[in-house]
Amino acid sequence: MTSPHLATTPLEGSLGGEPQGQRPARLDVVHLAKSYGTGDGAKKVIEDLTFSVSAREIVCIVGPSGIGKTTLLKCLAGLQPTSGGRAAIDGREISGPPPEMALVFQDYSRSLMPWLTVRKNVVLPLRHLRLPKAELKARCDEALEAVGLAHAENQFPWQLSGGMQQRVAIARALAYRPEILIMDEPFASVDAQTRFDLEDLCLKIREGFGMTILVVTHDIDEAVYLADRVVVLGSKPARVLRIVDVELPSPRDQIGTRALPEFAAQRTDVLSLIKRPA
Amino acid sequence: MSKRPSLKSVRLWLLGVGTPLVLLAVWWFASADSTDTFFPPLAEILDRFRALWLFDHFTSDVLVSLRNLALGYAIAGVAAVAVGFVTALSAPIRWAVDPVIHFLRGIPPVALVPIFISLMGFGLEMRITSIALAAFFPTFIATVDGLRAVDRGLLDVASVYRLSRGERVVSVLLPAAGPQIFSGLQVSLQTAFVVMIASEMLGPSQGIGAMTLLAQQSFMISDMWSGILLLGVIGFAANFLFDLVRRKVLAWYIGSRRLARAS
Q1: A107 to chain B: which residues are within 8 Å by CB?
Q2: CA-nearest residue of chain A to B173?
Q3: Which of A22, A154, A243, B41 pairs as cysteine with A16 (C-beta 3.0–4.6 A)?
Q4: Contact A205, A178 (CB under 8 A)
Q5: Is the peptide bond before A251 cis (omega within 30 degrees of 0)?
Q6: Nearest Cα residue in chain B from A78
Q7: In the predicted model, what is the mean pLDDT of residues A241-255?
Q8: In sequence order, what are the beta bridge partners of A36?
Q9: DSSP one-letter string for B134-191
Q10: CB contact under 8 A, A113 and B154
């Protein structure tokens, strides 16, 4: 695919990344392409994607549904090989699941082990890290507390509502303490109140743990509220329409920030990009 | 959801326990004055049952049969799950093994017994091998099917969180395929039971099957009936034990299915 020497070449300036230019890029996606199958029957899902995510940045990817956002995340998580271009963390090409990354999947019902209780699901990825017992417990307690599920730790996932299951999946990612957290429409199945709480949790963990966060969402308000930058994708096959810098004061809060005229302007900006006939 | 059993479930439970008792009572009274050689009174059969199986032949035959069954079944279960894993997870092995397996599974298990007799004689090895081999296939096939059907999503989770190979097997694959493996084990138990009896009915030998056949050939009809009765009791007990284990191990599965049906 890509020759090894490319992995160490510094990246040519990331698109629209000027305000974050001083921060080093952690996650780089350069001319990434993905198609399934080969030859004439090949189905192109991603044409050419280029964007980057800097350290401690929250980037949201928005775009019409069914344009391969999940495929993109699977490539970034090293679950699927790319067909062209490259994706790298700190300049190292992603060739398998990177150790510094966690992924919250869109389909929570297929991401939790139904035979494990909530707590054991959270502990599962931590076992091979060989943490001291006390730390293991502390991380697990803290993560469950953060998503408000400390009371449900001994229940099985299938005894919980969809929103609660997704929160377990988020707690599992938090306890793993990844440097880079990727989430695929993580809040699509939770009620509005929980959704606000989880969005704020997302902002809080960026501050608390210095995580770099990439979120795919179809909710433009959510993208603008969360992100430092919004990557707007167009179809088909997927390509970057524009990268919008979100200039909203922080810390953000659900009532104040969403009431700002700048918030409305930004979301109109993004929305008009998506609505515009391609 | 409530802890107290509903009236309906109590009624069903009574039906479950009551029906066999009623059938036994019918048998008891209908056969009470029987003079037919082939259908002796149940009282007489139970009398022989007590004399034969609880005292005389308990260690010499009943225990021998049960030990063969347990050993053969255990070997089959462990081997089938292990070979099933290797087969399901390695494409070359799957291609190599599949045709052979489908050839062998088509042969009725009982038909294999004569081969083992000619290879190993009438000893214990022959019996245990016959039981193990016959019981191997249902669990093996179920294990392979179960592993192939493991949800892609769960495997992705295992990859993203970089679970080790061992963790993947123990914490993801084995439990995910658990429900199917248990269905296989249940069929294997029945097969093992059939082959246990069949292997005892050939050659001069010990065991419940041998004793029952011998009784029939010597016109000791009550003894024969008592043997059949004992086989029924053992089969029932084995299934009961199996179900206890299954309910314990697959509690998560049974619970989630019940919840899914209710909603």
Answers
A1: 153
A2: A113
A3: A243
A4: no
A5: yes
A6: B160
A7: 84
A8: A43
A9: HHHHHHHHHHHHHHHTS-HHHHHHHHHTT--HHHIIIIIIHHHHHHHHHHHHHHHHHH
A10: yes
Considering only alpha carbons, which residue of chain B is nearest residue A106?
Answer: B153
* Whole-angstrom distance, CA of residue A109 vs CA of residue B170: 20
User: B162 and A99: CB-CB below 8 Å?
Assistant: yes
Residue B161 to residue A124, Cβ atoms within 8 A? yes
Q: Determine how β-strand A43-54 pairs with β-strand A238-245.
A: parallel
Q: Nearest CB to A79: which of B156, B175, B259?
A: B156
For an interface test with A, the pick among B1, B161, B163 (most A C-beta atoms closer than 10 Å) comes out as B161
- CATH fourth-level superfamily of A57-79+97-232+242-275: P-loop containing nucleotide triphosphate hydrolases (3.40.50.300)
pLDDT, tens digit, for every residue of B16-63?
Answer: 889 989 998 999 888 888 888 788 888 888 888 888 777 777 777 888
CA distance A145 to chain B (A): 21
Average pLDDT over residues B233-253: 93
pLDDT band at B173 (very low <50, low <70, confident <90, very high): very high
CB atoms < 10 A from the CB of A43, how many?
Answer: 9
For residue A115, the chain B residue with the least C-alpha distance is: B252
Q: What pLDDT sits at residue A248?
A: 83
Beta carbons of B98 and B156 less than 8 angstroms apart: no
* ipTM at complex level: 0.84
Hey, what domains does chain B have and what are their CATH numbers?
Answer: 41-262 (1.10.3720.10)
User: Residue A102: left (phi > 0), alpha (psi -120 to 50), or beta?
Assistant: beta
Distance CA A118, CA A152 (A): 7
- Residue A127 CA, chain-centre distance (Å), reads 24
B164 contacts A110? CB cut-off 8 A: no
A79 contact B CB<8A: yes
pLDDT at B115: 83
State the burial class of residue A119 (Cβ atoms within 10 Å of its Cβ: 0-12, 13-18, 19+): buried
Q: In Å, how far is B163's CA from the nearest CA of chain A?
A: 7
